[in-house]
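Weekly structure sync, notes
Attendees: PL (lead), two postdocs, one rotation student
Agenda item 3: pending single-chain targets
PL asked that the sequence for the first pending target be pasted directly into the notes so everyone works from the same version. It is reproduced below exactly as submitted, 460 residues in total.
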Amino acid sequence: MNILLVKPYNISDHIQPPLGLGYLATAVRKNHKVQLLDCIKMGIKQGDFTSYLDRDNYDAVGFQCYTYDLPVLKPLLEMCKKRGMLTLVGGPHPSAVPEETMAYFGKDLDYCFQGEAETGLPMLLDSIEWKKESDKRGIPGLVWREKGRVIVNEKDYVDKLDDLGTPAWDLIRPQEYPEAQHGAFFKNFPIAPIVVTRGCPYACTFCAGNLISGRKCRKRSPKAVVEEIKTLYDKYGIREIHVIDDNFTLDKNFAKEVLKLIKESNLEISWAVPNGIRMESLDDELLRLMKQTGLYLVSLGIESGSDRILELMKKKTTTSFIEKTIRRIRSFGIDVAGFFIIGFPGETLSDIEKTIKFSLRLDLIRANYFTYLPFPGTESYESIKREEGLDKVNWDKFLFFGASYSPKGIDATFLRALQKKAFLKFYLRPVIFWRNIIQIKSFRHFKFLCKRFFNWILKK
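Predicted structure, written out during the meeting:
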């Protein structure tokens, strides 16, 4: 079969290679023809999508689907069905609410996958091409219809991540992506993201990560990780690596093995951890190795300056421990960025003010203040669904900027104003302002920062 894998367009200013689709392409291309289309990178909106559909005789089109992609995907799936193409979606949203996903798209969606699909998608395509329809019940993670009823197959996780190979970098072409892919700054270019682990054993109530990759943390072999970095360096000219999984340092001995191999390789690269890492596993030896191998930035999911809210989030940390950890990281000359959530269920104005003051007290080079998003399938989402009703969630504005939810007693418009206030108070301090200004690499980088400033601060 001939399949097109699509990352749909949205107004995000994070333009980074679609690793998930890259891994799927590697799995599928063993028996089928596959192409990737990143609509965000290429600026392909709804009106332009048909011309790409008609460029090849595609049998099937698969879409990555986050919750905020729902209204965008609806007309795209309709276009595909009008051409007689098989339609599929996968990703966080169908993993969280598979039956609701099938109902939302209706007749325009043939199948969706929950969880990881590197095993299931090739099996589905094989069964369709070889007309073995009875095989569907044995396809892990498949969500399908039988006689009008939605059937959700059990998920399955690959324990040995090395068996999945690496993303189809030849189809992704990482060297063609813009400089500031994840976050607003970088040290070297071109940049490529990599995944070292999958799965998370933690139970943060707002996080949907485990819905795709499960609770067990699975690791690639250190050798496989470093071989991929070497390939990216030699074949694609990559000079900066972003480790985008959350648990690279969960097993600090594993992380040290990877870093020692990177050090032995003598690759002249910089690297960062833009999605965050767990603070509990950081010791001096690990931080020293991280610095020696080119690490310049660590992002931390700090989330709140209120110990009460941290407990509600089940973060299993305290503001005191966070402060100590940041001081420790900074002592090795590594910059720290922080992620914060405001508007969490049960949060008060006092809690939000604590978070803003806490962020200003910490030795951070950058801070991101997100309004709480009720991701389907998370514990906090289920709580809202049960106690407050989903009419509180504005799905059409389900974006990282703006406020699609606000807790009781706090108006959504006021919450957005607090978010803007936090950004301005943090970045307009002279020391922070100039520390960031001197890191601007080019006029194009400057224009990107202006766009981000507009989205986060000026946009209503």
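Discussion points:
- The chain has two domains: 2-152, 173-458.
- The mean pLDDT is 91.
Action: rotation student to compare against the earlier draft before next sync.
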